[in-house]
């Protein structure tokens, strides 16, 4: 499931045109695909309204109206902004009328309302007739279907004034970024991608169940505890001992072979009874500062529950020189430049931390989080896991995954620590770093979704996320 910006779609259309696949054909394909999909949700007795705009999104609506009427559905086409302006939509409109099909006026009640007013080429806020008709449509009790994206939503940014409140949005060829951004995602309703005959893929995609099934490795039966490597977790302080506990359990429940927790003597004392499976490096952070990185480690996570920025900075200087993949979280996330090194650096900020790291205000980040995560990942050469609803995982080579699992139950202190522990385990054990990171994020969200099936989201604890992991991972093994 790929994600394309409005500009990319335009470019793809131009390439298609040059290679002989004209927009008229793409529009025909779009209308037919919409018809095939819609048939699953409508009946012949339903009164269907199709609202078409003047651009190509409107053209898709015109083709859909033809298919519906020619197959015996009760469908009326309206053009609230007037006749098509786009050359291709106008051609399809001419074909529509030459088939003896009519244009109607909005009148009475409808069972189904289709929004083909504006698509990827429009810039909100809405104006004129379009604004009025969207306001009217939102007040109707009908099944609401948007073509490509809900009118009033921008393709690439997460904001909207008043937009079409869809039950379903059928995205053509691929998703647009706004399908995953606060301020617009809720207008989409349930979303689905429909193919229209274009071959292009994107470096941005949704990390789906299929990806996890394809990449999540079965635990080898001949494995021993050394097979998966030892993870070093530098976390927890006398004031925040719980962070080390949550991250440690997250790592162990995710299958880490051996875990060394570098923490204060006091925290190690508290944790020893709760996580007897781990080894402890007393004053581990200080030891790293002094150049004593425990030997034989496969990866290192640093940050949860660490309060002292100077000490962290010194420890990072030492760790950057090691060949360990590094997961940097919470207290260790600051504005800094990252060195180029062989092993990966994975940062796991929430929007507030990302704002601290970049100086970009949180609302701007949220409006455009795919873009900003990718920009940061590429400029700094680090894997950026920008957390929150629809976590974005951006890689230095431009690849980007959006994770859709998880719910508001995760909006609670400690769940980030759990994820850091999970990442430490997955990065230590899995061969491919991209799927290791994405699968950890996916399973973290799945735990919350599993909990939400039978229990109130608000009652979820970070420790529950870890506890549910074995059940979740079982279905992928
Ligand atoms: N490759 C594909 O995915 C294809 C998708 N198709 C469809 O085409 C649209 C994009 O079409 P485009 O003509 O570029 O733009 P729109 O239809 O979204 O709108 C242009 C139209 O809207 C007016 N307008 C712009 N902003 C506003 C506003 N704020 N208020 C009111 N009116 C506005 C503008 O003046 C123009 O008249 C894509 O989404 C798909 O649905 C193709 O069918 C095939 C290839
Ligand atoms: K639309």
UniProtKB/TrEMBL annotation:
Membrane-crossing segments per the record: none
SUPFAM superfamilies per the UniProt record, alphabetical: Ribokinase-like (SSF53613), YjeF N-terminal domain-like (SSF64153)
PROSITE patterns: YJEF_C_2 (PS01050), YJEF_C_3 (PS51383), YJEF_N (PS51385)
Cofactor(s) the record lists: K(+); Mg(2+)
Entry binding sites for K(+): 57, 115, 151
Gene3D superfamilies: 3.40.1190.20, YjeF N-terminal domain
Co-factor: note: Binds 1 potassium ion per subunit.
Annotated YjeF C-terminal domain residues: 208-476
Reactions catalysed: (6R)-NADPHX = (6S)-NADPHX; (6S)-NADHX + ADP = AMP + phosphate + NADH + H(+); (6R)-NADHX = (6S)-NADHX; (6S)-NADPHX + ADP = AMP + phosphate + NADPH + H(+)
Entry keyword set: ATP-binding, Isomerase, Lyase, Metal-binding, Multifunctional enzyme, NAD, NADP, Nucleotide-binding, Potassium
All residue ranges annotated as the YjeF N-terminal domain in the record: 9-204
CDD domains: YXKO-related (cd01171)
EC nos: 4.2.1.136, 5.1.99.6
Domain of life where this protein originates: Bacteria
Binding site for (6S)-NADPHX: 56-60, 119-125, 148, 305, 350, 417
Subunit text: Homotetramer.
Similarity annotation: Belongs to the NnrD/CARKD family.
Function according to Swiss-Prot or TrEMBL: Catalyzes the dehydration of the S-form of NAD(P)HX at the expense of ADP, which is converted to AMP. Together with NAD(P)HX epimerase, which catalyzes the epimerization of the S- and R-forms, the enzyme allows the repair of both epimers of NAD(P)HX, a damaged form of NAD(P)H that is a result of enzymatic or heat-dependent hydration.
Protein name (database record): Bifunctional NAD(P)H-hydrate repair enzyme
Source organism of the structure: Fictibacillus fluitans
């Amino acid at each position: 499931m790929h994600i394309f910006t409005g500009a990319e779609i335009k470019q793809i259309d131009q390439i298609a045109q040059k290679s002989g696949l004209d927009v008229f054909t793409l529009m025909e394909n779009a209308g037919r695909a919409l018809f095939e999909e819609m048939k699953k949700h409508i009946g012949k007795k339903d009164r269907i309204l199709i609202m078409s705009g003047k651009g190509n999104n409107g053209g898709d609506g015109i083709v859909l109206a033809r298919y519906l009427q020619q197959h015996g559905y009760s469908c009326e086409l309206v053009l609230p902004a007037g006749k098509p302006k786009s050359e291709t939509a106008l051609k399809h409109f001419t074909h529509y009328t030459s088939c003896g099909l009519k244009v109607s006026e909005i009148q009475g009640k409808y069972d189904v309302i289709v929004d083909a007013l504006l698509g990827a080429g429009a810039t909100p806020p809405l104006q004129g007739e379009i604004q009025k008709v969207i306001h009217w449509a939102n007040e109707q009790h009908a099944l609401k279907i948007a073509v490509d994206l809900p009118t009033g939503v921008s393709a690439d940014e997460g904001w909207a004034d008043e937009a079409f409140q869809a039950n379903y949005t059928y995205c053509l060829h691929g998703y647009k970024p706004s399908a995953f951004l606060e301020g617009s995602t809720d207008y989409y309703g349930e979303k689905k991608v429909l193919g229209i005959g274009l071959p292009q893929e994107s470096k941005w995609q949704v990390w789906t169940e299929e990806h996890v099934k394809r990449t999540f490795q079965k635990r080898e039966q001949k494995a021993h505890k050394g097979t998966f490597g030892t993870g070093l977790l530098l976390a927890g302080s006398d004031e925040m001992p719980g962070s080390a506990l949550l991250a440690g359990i997250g790592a162990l429940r995710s299958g880490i072979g051996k875990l060394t927790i570098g923490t204060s003597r006091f925290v190690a004392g508290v944790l020893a009874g709760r996580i007897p499976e781990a080894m402890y490096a007393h004053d581990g952070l200080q030891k790293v500062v002094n150049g004593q990185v425990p030997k034989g480690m496969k990866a290192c996570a640093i940050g949860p529950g660490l309060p002292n920025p100077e000490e962290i900075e010194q420890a990072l200087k030492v760790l950057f020189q090691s060949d360990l993949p590094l997961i940097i979280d919470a207290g260790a996330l600051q504005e800094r430049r990252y060195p180029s090194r062989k092993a990966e650096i994975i940062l796991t900020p929430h929007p507030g931390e990302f704002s601290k790291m970049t100086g970009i205000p949180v609302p701007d980040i949220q409006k455009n989080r795919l873009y900003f995560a990718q920009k940061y990942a590429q400029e700094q050469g680090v894997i950026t896991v920008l957390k929150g609803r629809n976590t974005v995982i951006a890689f230095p080579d431009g690849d980007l995954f959006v994770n859709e699992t998880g719910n508001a139950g995760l909006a609670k202190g400690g769940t980030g620590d759990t994820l850091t522990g999970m990442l430490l385990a997955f990065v230590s054990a899995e061969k491919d770093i991209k799927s290791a990171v994405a699968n950890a994020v996916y399973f973290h969200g799945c735990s919350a979704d599993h909990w939400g099936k039978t229990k109130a989201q608000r009652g979820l604890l970070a420790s529950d996320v870890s506890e549910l992991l074995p059940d979740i991972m079982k279905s992928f093994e």
